[in-house]
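sorry for the late reply, my laptop died twice this morning and i had to redo everyting from scratch. anyway the thing you sent over, i finally got around to it. pasting the sequence first so we're on the same page, its 270 residues, then the predicted structure underneath. double check i copied it right bc i was rushing
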Amino acid sequence: MQSPARSGFTTIELIIFSAIFAIVSVAFLSILVAVVRVQSRQGAANEVNQQSDFALATIQRIVEQSSQIEGTAGVAVTDVTMRMPEDADDPTRVYVQNGQIFVQVNGGASEPLTTEAVEVTSASFVKRANPGGKDSLSVVMTISNNSDNPTRYFARAINVLVSRVSAATFDSDVIPNTGDTFKLGVSSQKWDSVNEVIFFDGSNVGIGAQNPTSKLEVDGGVRLNAGGARPSCTSGIRGTVWVTQNGGGTPDTIDACLKTSTSTYSWVAI
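ok and here's the structure:
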């Protein structure tokens, strides 16, 4: 006599199957959550890195092209202004406000370098003076993604020093302080020329002469044009040469202030 055919699973088989299914489901769910979390954080990291690179590249370009970094050296600020060689770009200002970096050119509208997707949690700009060379700008920032989800948090710290490349240019007079203590050049660092017209070689000065061999060497004519009244010849102007321009049919005269044999000073016709 044959046993009746089975028509389903036993209770133990169902329990075992359910347990295996639950374990596999939890494993797959854990993997899925981990993958989503990694992708989410990676997306936040990409956003922070892209915006950080763009902002840093823009600041670096501005500093390198600037002719002057305004402000006091060694003082950290969140708002820095650079003077630019081109009038259309002068001045250019970089500043941090409400968690974003902005740039303002020639007093125009401010343009953001970062979006609200990221937040500049800290930032400072420090001018570094370099006597004898070009100043530089220290840029220290921390940029993170703007999210309340801790699993998506990503922050990038930036600490770079950007040096100026362009030579200094001025849009106004160069005026020393009232104490008359500043000099143009020093004994160890001398100017080679001024406008490629006045040249220096040691203590010799050349006008149009690139390698002067005398205290004063002029490549070309020298014109003496005294339009005022000739002063009295004294020891204070001894050695002065004076041209008097006469009118009508009277010829011009040229005289030198010299010491005479009697130890007096007199104008002597040359």
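The longest helix spans residues 11-65.
thats about all i looked at so far, will dig more tmrw
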